[in-house]
Amino acid sequence: MSSVTRSTFDEVMVPNYQPAALIPVRGQGSRLWDQQGREYLDFACGIAVTGLGHAHPRLLSVLAEQAGRLWHLSNVMTNEPALRLARRLTDLTFADKVFFCNSGAEANEAAFKLARRWGSTQFGPHKSTIVSFYNAFHGRTLFTVSVGGQAKYTKGFEPLPGGIRHVAFNDLAALEAVMDDSVCAVVMEPVQGEGGVLPATREFAQGVRALCDRFKALLVYDEVQTGNGRSGTLFAYEQYGVTPDVLTTAKGLGGGFPIGAMLTTDALAGVLAFGTHGSTYGGNPLACAVADAVVEEIARPELLRNVGERAAQLTARLEEIGARYGLFSTTRGMGLLIGAPLSDAWKGRAKDVVNAALAEGLWLLVAGPDVLRFAPALNISEADVAEGLRRFERACAVLTSASPS
Questions:
Q1: Residues in the annotated binding site
Q2: Pairing of strands 183-188, 129-133
Q3: What pLDDT, in 10s, does the model give residues 107-142?
Q4: Which residues are documented as binding site for N(2)-acetyl-L-ornithine?
Q5: What is the per-residue pLDDT for 16?
Q6: Active site residues
Q7: 105: domain range?
Q8: Is residue 85 located within the same domain as residue 174?
Q9: By C-alpha distance, which of 19, 66, 37, 107 is closest to 351?
Q10: Residue 242 reports pLDDT greater than 70
Q11: Residue 123 belongs to a domain with what CATH number?
């Protein structure tokens, strides 16, 4: 086979991504190695996906076992791994029913279709408006990107689907001003991930629930990024004293194996009757077998306790580093989804910080041009967090050795 380099991407791939020059080829726990054998600590987890780290022995075993049995079934057949995973998810959450798909965008697409069909069948065709929040991110299909509320992702793809309203996040008065009998659903991330790692306040989350009840609208929680232990509980809604009507998740659900899910109640699930929605690969036996093991591991109290302990370690040390070097002064987020908004002097340079960290052997993320995002594995050790932060501090020292330009 011919060698693969970063230039190969430019030769054969659609240029909608700009991947790093280095190419990881192996992972173990919270560490990655590139083609040259250089080691990196992973505080990105493939954008909050590999929540149990790389090459987790339990996941490897489950995947190999299922691969030797059955790879694929269409949804005209009953599927053991999918039913086991659905039972685990319903036992652990508010939900009674689950729909499986392959990604967060697909899970949200299903949720939005459910909301529209519920509004139409229960109240009439006028009840079709979906309300979302500016700077949200719900996926890259035309429907989900339109609901997302970020113009940079919709420009040039017009005409966009209609019946969508956007208001400011954490602004209850703004939401109340656009609510009426036409609204079938309000869609929110408990923590806006791509929008800057910005958590909803408890008052706002509870106020959104109350407004949905008042106007007979569904509350849809997008927990694609915050779900599956990332927030410090299995799902972030548990920390707000709020129960959604519909919840979507993906990313960490499969620990790196592609899978998404929409969770809802018995009362709503019947809206998606036979033939109304589907997915060829949804409920794939390989994906569901792995995800079932992932959820079992994540739901363990000791693992969730580690999320809280490592989050406290990470935020405390980050704030010391931020104060020392002036890149940022505080952090925000929930669990091991942590954002560090850059100071005025460094605004727009989040990618520069990420690149400097990469040069020191640490993978980070951005959440827009002004916010650094830290999303290490949920089972990361205290020693690996400390070592990653030493590398991050070295990067900050290099960057600030000259004044920002």
A1: 104-105, 137, 140, 222-225, 279-280
A2: parallel
A3: 999 999 999 999 999 999 999 999 999 999 999 999
A4: 140, 279
A5: 87
A6: 137, 222, 251
A7: 58-298
A8: yes
A9: 19
A10: yes
A11: 3.40.640.10
